[in-house]
């Protein structure tokens, strides 16, 4: 079968430890992109205390065709102002030393949800100022004031995902803008040149190698430090179909190209996701 999963996607069934941590998240009504986006690395990450918390609820105002997160059919959505506190308590209970915070896109909010990012960062740092935090932000509809608000909260890494090549944006991300995403990364460096920036590409959507390399070059031109590349897996039969399973050799080739282009770190492989081994990558940057 054309779209049968390659053997390297075989995953462990969640054990008692993983199920217990999933139950804790449920009790605290805390969302993770791991669960909402059906990440194939969930068991591995939860077992190793690696979480990507998803703030601003679990409903997105965008309509990306590859994403498993629920999409809104309303003009406005509610905002849970206690959400940052509950996430900070999870970090405290599990004694987390590294946290990734991402969000749905909230075009209905005037600041795009930047204030909620800041509250979450501040509450986690109030528990332990040494906890490292990576933020994976939306484009805030190009609102630079919102971007600066998050940067000023002093995350360790700021990530914003380009997701796919420019040609596929109209098909896959009709409410997003390729150049706007590049601008977010570039502007971050203008505001704080020392803050590490990161982006991600999902492969297997019908892109060509030439387009992938062109996108990598665009990211480097806009001062992106870290790149992750992973295989797209369709969340359901109603989502955009997988066009190709990229070979492990091709992922290795992209990694070599990325390093030649000047990325400080490149993670490239079938199971790689935006926040995959995020703590280890930061450690590599700090060591250098």
In short:
By secondary structure, the protein is of the alpha/beta class.
Features:
288 residues, alpha/beta, TIM Barrel, two-stranded parallel sheet, 11 helices
The share of residues in helices is 25-40%
The number of E-state strands comes to 10
SS content category: alpha/beta
What is the tally of helical segments? Answer: 11
**Poorly predicted runs:** none
Cα-atom Rg, whole angstroms?
18 Å
- What number of domains? 1
- As laid out across the biggest beta sheet, the strand order is 1-2-5-6-7-8-9-10
Rounded average pLDDT: 91
Q: Care to describe what's here?
A:
An eight-stranded mixed β-sheet has the order 1-2-5-6-7-8-9-10, sandwiched between helices. It has a two-stranded parallel ribbon with strand order 3-4. The longest helix is centred in the middle third of the chain and has 14 residues, at 114-127. The protein is of the alpha/beta class. It has eleven helices and ten strands. Helix 4 (83-93) packs parallel to helix 5 (114-127), helix 6 packs across helix 8 and helix 9 (209-221) packs parallel to helix 10. It is globular. The N and C termini lie far apart (45 Å). It has helices spanning 16-27, 33-36, 42-47, 83-93, 114-127, 144-152, 169-172, 178-191, 209-221, 248-261, 278-287, and strands spanning 31-32, 52-55, 59-60, 70-71, 98-103, 132-136, 157-159, 196-203, 226-231, 265-268. Helix 9 links the parallel strand 8 (196-203) and strand 9 (226-231). 39% of the residues lie in helices and 15% in strands. It has a single domain (8-287), classed as Aldolase class I (TIM Barrel, Alpha-Beta Barrel), CATH 3.20.20.
